[in-house]
């Protein structure tokens, strides 16, 4: 039987997961609250479908539902209504969470713009309460079981953050209980051969990209003290969601934008190493620079280049730096009154770039 995480003190990987989630909630509000008032955009919805009882087993660390509330209460909601749906299969956890919120967040009784619905429904049969924009769905425990629910939930205007026990998938991939959730034609034991435990979540992310081909994906790896690597996978129906999650990831992990550990064991980014070189590009950046040069052997537009960078886990600022280092080897064609520059964040202008 799996351990109940809400009866234990959370480890550093779990706390990092929650930090990423909380930061993304902040960033998600930055984007979604800026849309104008109309029937389509007047309410924002957040679904926390494994919300738990509010704290870890020690009562020291806040879980996802309380972090959502903390993020909301810091913001100007700009006339929007926030609808929160807290669900857990365990009725006692929902009861405890409701008591904690009633006691610790008394201010909510005066807030007509924040509405909370508590449920204890099996996630397998859970349905979203509307089809309106914008929705953020958090699927925590045992995420691989809920791939079908993620596919069901992903209508326009929906972002999903799903926790995946990647190390378990690697370990039990060929077990019958896992096979029923996985496309065995798209992932196998061979994919993990000659790969470190740190790289496990990258492999799972590639699998998700084959399953959600028409969506936009970004990962964040979470390596535990025992070396097992799990992680978060962000899935969106919109490029902006992918970009915003990557911005969050780079805030949390300034060197790689990918996890709570140095996945590539890159000594140039290890402050305790004799080879530490903070101003040098990381091994991950060097690999990406080679991919980008290959990509630019054909003429590409500024927006195509931006999307390429996002799909490879980088932001425009990283790609601009590489392009500037290559500028003497690039042919640039400027359209729509574009001035010199690569303009990766400007849809209204067009620049075509090719490596000579």
How would you sum up this structure, described in words?
With 356 residues, the protein is an alpha/beta fold. It has two domains: 248 residues, 3-Layer(aba) Sandwich (Rossmann fold); 87 residues, Arc Repressor Mutant, subunit A (Orthogonal Bundle). The strands form two sheets. Strands 3-2-1-4-5-7-6 form a seven-stranded mixed beta sheet, with helices on both faces. Strands 8-10-9 form a three-stranded antiparallel beta sheet. Strand 4, helix 4 and strand 5 form a beta-alpha-beta unit. Helix 1 runs parallel beside helix 2 and helix 1 crosses helix 8. It is globular. The termini are far apart. The mean pLDDT is 90.
Features:
356 residues, three-stranded antiparallel β-sheet, 34% helix, seven-stranded mixed β-sheet, 2 domains, 17% strand, Rossmann fold, alpha/beta
Topology:
Blueprint: H1 12-32, E1 43-48, H2 64-73, E2 81-87, H3 91-104, E3 114-119, E4 135-139, H4 147-153, E5 158-164, H5 166-172, H6 176-179, H7 200-211, E6 216-223, E7 229-236, H8 239-252, H9 283-295, E8 300-301, H10 302-311, H11 316-325, E9 330-335, E10 350-355
Helix pairs in contact: 1-2, 1-8
Order of neighbouring strands in the sheet with most strands: 3-2-1-4-5-7-6
Largest sheet: 7 strands, mixed
How many domains, as an integer? 2
Helix content: 25-40%
In DSSP terms (H or I, runs of 4 or more residues), the helix count works out at 11
The CATH superfamily of the largest domain appears as: Vaccinia Virus protein VP39
What form results from the Cα inertia axes? globular
Segments where pLDDT lies below 50 for 5+ residues?
none
Order of helices and strands: HEHEHEEHEHHHEEHHEHHEE
Mean pLDDT: 90
**Gap between N and C termini:** 59 Å
CATH first level of the largest domain: which class?
Alpha Beta
Annotated CATH architecture of the largest domain: 3-Layer(aba) Sandwich
Q: What is the name of the CATH topology of the largest domain? A: Rossmann fold
The rounded Rg comes to 21 Å
**Which percent band covers the strand fraction?**
15-25%
Q: Could you tell me the number of beta strands?
A: 10
């Amino acid at each position: 039987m799996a351990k109940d995480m809400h009866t234990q003190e959370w480890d550093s990987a779990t706390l990092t997961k929650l930090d990423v989630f909380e930061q993304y909630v902040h960033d998600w509000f930055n984007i979604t609250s800026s849309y104008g008032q109309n029937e389509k955009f007047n309410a924002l919805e957040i679904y926390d479908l494994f919300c738990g009882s509010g704290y870890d087993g020690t009562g020291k660390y806040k879980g996802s539902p309380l972090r959502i509330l903390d993020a909301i209460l810091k913001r100007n909601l700009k006339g929007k209504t926030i609808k929160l749906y807290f669900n857990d299969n365990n009725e006692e956890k929902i009861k405890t969470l409701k008591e904690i919120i009633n006691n610790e967040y008394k201010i909510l009784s005066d807030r007509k713009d924040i509405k909370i619905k508590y449920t204890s429904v099996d996630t397998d049969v859970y349905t979203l309460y509307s089809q309106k924009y914008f929705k953020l769905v958090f699927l925590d425990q045992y995420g691989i079981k809920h791939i079908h629910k993620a596919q069901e939930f992903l209508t326009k205007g929906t972002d999903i953050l799903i926790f995946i026990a990647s190390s378990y998938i690697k370990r039990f991939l060929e077990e019958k209980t896992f096979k029923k959730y996985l496309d065995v034609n798209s992932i196998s034991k061979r994919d993990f051969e000659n790969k470190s435990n740190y790289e496990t979540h990258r492999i799972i992310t590639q699998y998700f990209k084959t399953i959600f081909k028409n969506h936009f994906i970004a990962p964040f790896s979470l390596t535990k003290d025992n070396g097992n690597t799990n992680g978060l996978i962000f899935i969106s129906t919109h490029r902006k969601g992918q970009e915003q999650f990557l911005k969050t990831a780079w805030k949390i992990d300034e060197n790689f934008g990918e996890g709570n550990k140095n996945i590539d064991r890159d000594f140039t980014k290890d402050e305790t190493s004799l080879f530490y070189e903070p101003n040098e590009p990381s091994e991950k950046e060097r690999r990406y620079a080679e991919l980008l040069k290959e990509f630019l052997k054909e003429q590409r537009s500024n927006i195509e280049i931006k999307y390429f960078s996002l799909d490879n886990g980088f932001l425009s600022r990283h790609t601009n730096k590489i392009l500037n280092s290559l500028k003497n080897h690039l042919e640039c064609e400027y359209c729509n009154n574009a001035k010199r520059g690569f303009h990766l964040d400007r849809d209204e202008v067009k620049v075509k770039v090719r490596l000579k």
